[in-house]
Amino acid sequence: MTQNLLYKKPLQRILLITLRFLGDTLLTTPLLNSLRTAYPKAEIDVLVFKNTAAMLEGNPAIAHIVTIAQKPTWQEQKTLFKRIFRRYDVAISTQAGDRPTLYACLAAKTRIGFVPPKPQTGWFKRYFLTRWLEFDVQKTHTVLEMLRLCELLNIAPIYQLTAPQSHFDIKTVQGLTQNYAVLHILPQWRYKQWTRAGWLAVAHYLHNQGIQVVLSGSPLPQEITYLAELQTECPENTLNLAGKLTLAELAQLIKQACLFIGVDTGITHLAAATEVPTIALFGATDPVKWTPWPAQYHSTEPPFASKGSQQVNNVYLIQGEKDCVPCYFEGCERHQQSHSDCLEQLPAKRVIKVIEQVINSISFL
């Protein structure tokens, strides 16, 4: 067991705090794997939002998943305080926000984490942490940013992501053929969305290549409706599984697919973690910080540059058109439900060309 420089005794109880979206939660798993490798006998708990806990299902590095609502009541906060108060040897906050820092302070006398750089609001949080790092907003991939915390613990980083796990048998999915591709069409926010016409062109191309189209999606009513309507224009054997699988079951489905195609969303990060060939469509978001982490990529350098379509291992990045990409804004109108010209002008032929490249690089037909 690794001896921690901040704690005189071998670590027995560790709390990792990550109050993030689905994709961000998955990107903390390399840090979890690093902790598990360094402290094989320690009890490692993770504190997450209730609606992201499914991303950690079956994770062998975790002893317990502790959850809290995104907007908790005072009673829910009180219950959490009692649950975590001074229970841990070390608390690790993966964010510079107020709540993660507060929970870390409550959970352990020894706490490490990120703080905003001076003179940004909240820079004073460094005085509440035993050791801290200034959070890098733009220049470091999120996986590498999380792994920087290994420096504070003097442990070796492990670069491998862990997808949620289950014993789901895809043979139980009715209508599923041997060769299929999973398409995740809808992101959480409109400004990351590609065109309906583009997705239909891709679906028909895959069908003509002998590959069944499988649509994935969340159980949100508007997403169910959108995909049901889209399915009527897709090839006749298209399978729509939106809202029908857990995240762990979806991971199993994607893992055994020929390829995955998705936009800038948590499910695309999940696909890359399963090691399936993953085509990711990016617009406003900077690839340096947020591209899906390629399988078997072990480096302290971000896998992708900010500009241009690129491939690293199993991840094929297709960047939207226009010179302003990436703009770092939430669409052309600067809000989450905005359109993005860079994605709306992305022609299907560019995506199909990459699909053809993937098909030619692997033998599954």
What are its keywords?
365 residues; alpha/beta; Rossmann fold; 2 domains; seven-stranded mixed beta sheet; six-stranded parallel beta sheet; 13 strands; 30% helix; 17% strand
Describe this protein's structure.
The mean pLDDT is 94. The protein has 365 residues and is an alpha/beta fold. α7 packs parallel to α13 (348-361). It has two domains: 13-153, Rossmann fold (3-Layer(aba) Sandwich); 172-361, Rossmann fold. Helices cover 30% and strands 17% of the residues. The termini are far apart. The chain contains 13 helices and 13 strands. The radius of gyration is 21 Å and the shape is globular. β8, α8 and β9 (239-240) form a beta-alpha-beta unit. The strands form two sheets. The protein has a seven-stranded mixed sheet, with helices on both faces.
Topology:
Blueprint: E1 13-17, H1 22-26, H2 29-38, E2 43-49, E3 64-68, H3 74-84, E4 90-93, H4 98-107, E5 110-115, E6 131-134, H5 142-147, H6 149-153, E7 180-184, H7 196-208, E8 212-216, H8 221-231, E9 239-240, H9 247-255, E10 259-263, H10 266-273, E11 278-282, H11 287-290, E12 310-312, E13 315-319, H12 341-344, H13 348-361
Parallel strand pairs: 1-2, 1-4, 2-3, 4-5, 5-6, 7-8, 7-10, 8-9, 10-11, 11-13
Antiparallel strand pairs: 12-13
Fraction in beta strands: 15-25%
How many distinct helices?
13
CATH superfamily of the largest domain: Glycogen Phosphorylase B
CATH class of the largest domain: Alpha Beta
How would you describe the shape? globular
**Uncertain residue ranges:** none
Order of helices and strands: EHHEEHEHEEHHEHEHEHEHEHEEHH
Radius of gyration: 21 Å
Helical content, roughly?
25-40%
